[in-house]
Amino acid sequence: VTAPLLMSVALLLGIPLYLWAGAIADRIGRKPVQMAGMLLAAVCIVPVYQTIGALAPIPPIDSLDAISLTHLQVVGLLLLLIFAAGLACGPGAAFMAELFPTRIRYTSLSLPYHLTSAWFGGFMP
């Protein structure tokens, strides 16, 4: 119960980061924002997971009084990864839409997405 709860809190706190990243990408450009997110993810992913592993075992949360510094540290580390994902993915939809002319945009984006979802997602157990 603890891991899904911590992840849910981090995801809820991270939602605005995607919107912020999209707004920043509108101002300074999509490529620098996405590249910063990818670089941040590449640099942080191993240390973040190592740190979360070093914090284990994480005590269970059975009441609000049971929330400890360890829980807050894990949420903070997860937020760092969500921030990197927000930078890399937040501007992604606008970036993809700008790649294609209007008359073929829908087909160019939806056909590969739905085919790969069906082929790779549909045959998974």
Major sheet: size, sense and barrel closure? none
Uncertain ranges: none
Number of distinct beta strands: 0
Query: What count of helical segments does DSSP give?
Result: 5
Q: Provide the gyration radius in Å.
A: 18 Å
Structure classification: mainly alpha
Mean pLDDT: 91
Distance from N terminus to C terminus (CA atoms, Å) equals 24 Å
In percent, how helical is the residue content?
over 70%
- Order of SSEs, N→C? HHHHH
Assign an overall shape. Answer: globular
Strand content: under 5%
Could you explain how this protein is built, in words?
The protein contains 5 helices and no strands. The protein is mainly α and 125 residues long. It is globular. It starts with a helix and ends with a helix. Helix 1 (2-28) packs parallel to helix 3 (69-89). It has helices spanning 2-28, 30-55, 69-89, 92-98, 105-122. The longest helix is centred in the first third of the chain and has 27 residues, at 2-28.
